[in-house]
Amino acid sequence: MNLYRADHVGSLLRPKRLLDARRAHAEGKMSRQALTEIEDQAILDALAMQKSTGIDVYSDGEFRRASWIEGPFAALDGLSMRTSSRFEQPLWQGKGAKEANEDMPIAWAMVTAKLKLRHSITGHETAFLKKHARGPYKITMPGPTMLLNLYEPGVTSRVYPTRQDFLDDVVRVYQSEVDAQIADGASYIQLDSLRYAMALSGFPGPIEDDMSDVKGIVAQAIAADNAVLARCKGKNVVTGVHICRGNHRSAWLMEGSYDAVAEQLFTQTQTDRFLLEYDDARSGGFAPLRFVPKGKIVVLGIVTTRTGALESQETLMRRVDEASRHLPLEQLALSPQCGFASTELGNLLSEDEERRKLELVAKTARRIWG
Questions:
Q1: I want to staple 78 with a disulfide (CB 3.0 to 4.6 A). Which of 104, 115, 120, 140 is the partner?
Q2: What is the DSSP string of 162-212?
Q3: What are the residues facing 77 on neighbouring strands?
């Protein structure tokens, strides 16, 4: 298993030219081919930037998506678009909350028919990365339980009587997608999920009102993630699960330590790597890491993507030392706490600040692990 000591979650700030092109395409002023050419060049530039920082893992920055969760929406039949989100009240908190609550560029949908994969969710991303990445690259997808927000009681229930029936079919689709990714040469597949943080914080989001059965919610998410990640077993593919508390315009949705879910999550989830948000007090302490089994890596997200202020290397090293009191140093790695642009609007920092954050992750990892 590759240790990848200097990792990052995946999304990167979109350059202005790319944002302008996506807007022009949406308005019918630019062809799909012209937009693809601009996306390709932006990704090539992003790959070169990542190489210059010394980071161990490459991504395409999710430059072909409006948001981290968008991929399945465009690839699946059986969905109807909503006129509005079910997020009807301001929910975002912290720096950027005003911007975050005013603009959320996600095309919300609901399931109205049986799911059918029209085309690969990430195949176009994998093919380009396989050809152009300067080293190991990752493919990211929203965890399968994140699609539960597409379930509309009274509508979806006509084709999937229960949320679990629907989730079982989502898992089937994801298994097919992962098989295709592996066949295309993917070597690092990551599932991104707010579901675990929803359980530990009691935050229902747009899914349901009752979040009191924490163990049941976590068990459901673990079972779905494991069923997907199992397709990678024996295929020389690194797997990761990233756990986030919301990340949009430098704002956040949830808080709460990992304590409430740690033993269940860390001992039962069959992944190689946990990428954990740990950039401020909202995530609690490192003590829950004591439940992580031997052989698994915890990627400490201790460099924030919410501000451009650069952490000191000494502070990061002290935090790694603190974490190593609960989990051996050889089972740790470093990354930013989340993506720099979970939505295409991005967090409130500059591209130069983003680059310096990635450099800091890489230099600190080299200093600690060599």
A1: 115
A2: SHHHHHHHHHHHHHHHHHHHHHTT--EEEEEESHHHHHHHT--TTT-S---
A3: 116
Is residue 220 domain-resident? Answer: yes
136 within 8 A of 187, measured Cβ to Cβ:
yes
Tokens of 46: 């992003």
Q: Residue 282's domain spans which residues? A: 16-369
Paired residues of 81 in beta bridges: 109
- DSSP of 113-147, one letter per residue? EEEEE-S-SSHHHHHHHHHH-SS-B-EEEE-GGGG
Nearest to 148 by CA among 190, 226, 207: 207
Phi-psi region of 366 (alpha: psi -120 to 50; beta: other; left: phi over 0): alpha
CA angle 128, 132, 135 (to 5 degrees): 120
- Give the span between the Cα atoms of 216 and 219, in whole angstroms: 5
Which tokens in the block code for residue 325? 């009191």
Distance CA 212, CA 205 (A): 13
Domain count of the fold of the chain: 1
Q: Which of 369, 356, 250 is nearest to 321 (CA)?
A: 369
Matching residue, tokens 């999937």: 160
Residue 349 included in any domain: yes
11 in any annotated domain: no
Q: What is the mean pLDDT of residues 214-241?
A: 95
Domain contains 6: no
Residues 29-81 have pLDDT tens digits of: 999 999 999 999 999 999 999 999 999 999 999 999 999 988 888 899 999 87
Tokens found for residue 249? 């315009």
**Dihedral (Cα; 217, 218, 224, 229), 10-degree rounding:** 170
The span from the CA of 228 to the CA of 139, in Å, is 14
d(CA 362, CA 124): 28
Whichever domain contains 193, its CATH number is: 3.20.20.210
